[in-house]
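Blinded run. Sample ID left blank on purpose so nobody reads anything into the name before looking at the predicted structure. Input follows.
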Amino acid sequence: MAHRQNTLGILTGSHAPDLSDDAQHLTAALNKRGVNTEPVRWDDPTVQWDDYDGVLFRSCWEYPTDLERFRSLLTELEQAELPVCNALPAVRWNMHKSYLVDLAAAGIRLPATTVVDAGSDISLDEVLDRQGWDEAVMKPGVGSFSRDVTRVSRHALGTADKQFQNLLAAGDVVVQQFVPEIAEGERSIVFFGGAYSHAWNSLTTDDDITNFDGIDAGYEPPTSIREQAADVLGAAGDILGETVSSLPYARVDYVHRDGALLLMELELIEPFLGLDRGPGAGERAADALLSYFATTSTAWKVR
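Blinded prediction complete.
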């Protein structure tokens, strides 16, 4: 039986099998525009992709726990020749945090960063020594949910080196110089179709940089910061050889340093978009998605 026209498969996972609240804000706006939406488990190998006119990455947050399946999913989507959002080259590049090294080489300001290859015979103390850092943050090369992100100090390593070795046994490890400005919060700017939508500031606790205990949803970045965030998208586009600046969605996470943007993350796969934190954000997101799908496939007939 033929599927309904304008059917969008929205990739989700075990944490939100019926889609997250954020995604439901988006589906409501899409439904109003004549789009049929269905949650699809990213880890379900039995999905028939010809049931859909397009696929949207959303709450597939568990993919770092089964990279083999996730890479198979990307291959399946490529072979299905469906419009996918965000585009597969951007997803493949963004899934490993070595993209930060690429952006630094392109002139984007971010914390000093090094990638330690899986299985390397090196201690955490040696890494810090070589870089000349007293404090750092280590994290898996592929990760989400701030899982296994740890702040470490050369003068009080404790069990940190054992954690580091465990991470190396499982995959690449990214180590970054600690950024004290995180104490003032990690800001996030959301772009839809390359245009600024809204922002917020996530506040951390004093003793845990991965524990965000408050949100300033009224935060508005100055024009100069918005422009610097857009420059991050432009640099990513130069690296990928395509126009990342016009991708339907992107989230730039950063801290302020000396009045300028210091990039923490560029989220292009499944970021929380805070659609309840900006008036009309859900509608802007839906319009950007439909514009993208309409230009990538003739299957889309929307109102």
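Unblinding after everyone has recorded impressions. The radius of gyration is 20 Å.
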